[in-house]
Amino acid sequence: VTLVTIMKHAKNNNRPLIVLAPEFNENITISMFKNFKSGAVQVCPIKLPGFAGNRTQWIDDITAYVGGEVYTSNNIDPIKYLGDAEKTIVTQDETSIINTNVKLSCSSKMCELESRLSDDIEDWQKEDIKNRLARLRGRVVTIFVGATTELELKEKKDRVEDAVCALQTALKGGISEGGGMTFLRASAELYDSSPEDSDVISGYNLVIDSLMQPFEQLAINSDRDYAALCDDWRSDETLGYNFKTLQWENLKESGVIDPTLVLKNAITNAVGIVSNLLMTECITYNE
Fold first, then answer.
1. Residue 216: pLDDT band by 50, 70, 90 thresholds?
2. Rounded to an integer, what distance in angstroms lies between the CA atom of residue 50 and that of residue 212?
3. Ranges of H-type helices in the chain
4. Half-sphere exposure of 250 (CA within 13 A, CB side)
5. DSSP readout, 89-114?
6. Phi, psi (deg, nearest 5) at residue 202
7. How far apart are CA 151 and CA 219, in angstroms?
8. Residues 6+ apart with CB under 8 A from 103
9. Which of 98-107, 179-188, 249-258 has the lowest mean pLDDT?
10. DSSP character for 194?
11. What's phi and psi for 200, nearest 5 deg?
């Protein structure tokens, strides 16, 4: 009955409705889906994130962020406990709730969490509080891309999307030296620990040669002597070569970086492809 009341309120005010709960009854889910499909009301059920122990924290943080209250049987009028957000983006894997103006309840929650950082608590508890503060302080940036022609616009848009995806990947898995230097260092370490087993040495050397290819290709593209660069690098392996400035530098400080997960996936995918080729009886290719 309570959900029906809230859905009627959302319909009468022409507002979409997001319902968050630890679990959903099958009948309730079907009812919300039918209302959404018929166009009666835009309603979306979302399962609360987190597990057992920290789910209460998620409820408190989301409630503070949207300026609402948790509904219980003691709430006489559920409508007055509804929160609101300027925009909510729901995908299969994640939900983003966006409010550009911080609500009073959210500010109070952040002050409460900041004060707890000064308490005598465990390091993991402080880290958890910092993560909660980061979520509550989260901001969304809109990037406007302009161009004189449709073709130029498409090309710029692709570049921006690549940059955003690279940033998101870097936030998840960290960063490594770019410019092929990470693979070059990895190949040198593998070379120093080369196995003595003759049955695997050919494949081992193939991996080493493959890891050196990105740096070698960049040298070719920049019209630089690959062998000479390798000799220079071995004299001081703490630096990396910046193909833009043509100087040996600290690449991370210079901003020449790659997302670590991208490098890992590149190796994983390459090994997968080669494994399939080795197990294939015949291959057809175009010259």
1. very high
2. 42
3. 2-12, 26-38, 52-66, 104-116, 123-136, 150-173, 181-192, 201-221, 226-235, 251-254, 260-278
4. 2
5. EE-SS-EEEE-SSPPHHHHHHHHHHH
6. -65, -45
7. 30
8. 64, 65, 66, 67
9. 98-107
10. -
11. -115, -5
- CA separation for the pair 70, 122 (Å, rounded): 29
Lookup: tokens for 250: 């600290």
The span from the CA of 147 to the CA of 156, in Å, is 8
From the list 209, 217, 263, the residue with the least C-alpha distance to 243 is: 217
Closest C-alpha among 219, 214, 195 to residue 205: 195
Residue pointed to by tokens 């943080």: 61
Find out whether 176 and 263 touch, Cβ atoms under 8 Å. yes
- The per-residue pLDDT for 100 is 76
Q: Look at strands 95-98 and 87-90 and give their pairing.
A: antiparallel
Check: CB of residue 64 under 8 Å from CB of residue 106.
Answer: yes
- Assigned token pair, 101: 């103006």
Is this prediction's pTM over 0.70? no
Token reading at 24: 């959903």
Are the CB atoms for 70 and 61 separated by under 8 Å? no
For residue 248, what are the β-bridge partners?
Answer: 241
DSSP letter assigned to residue 120: S
Closest C-alpha to 243, from 235, 254, 227: 254
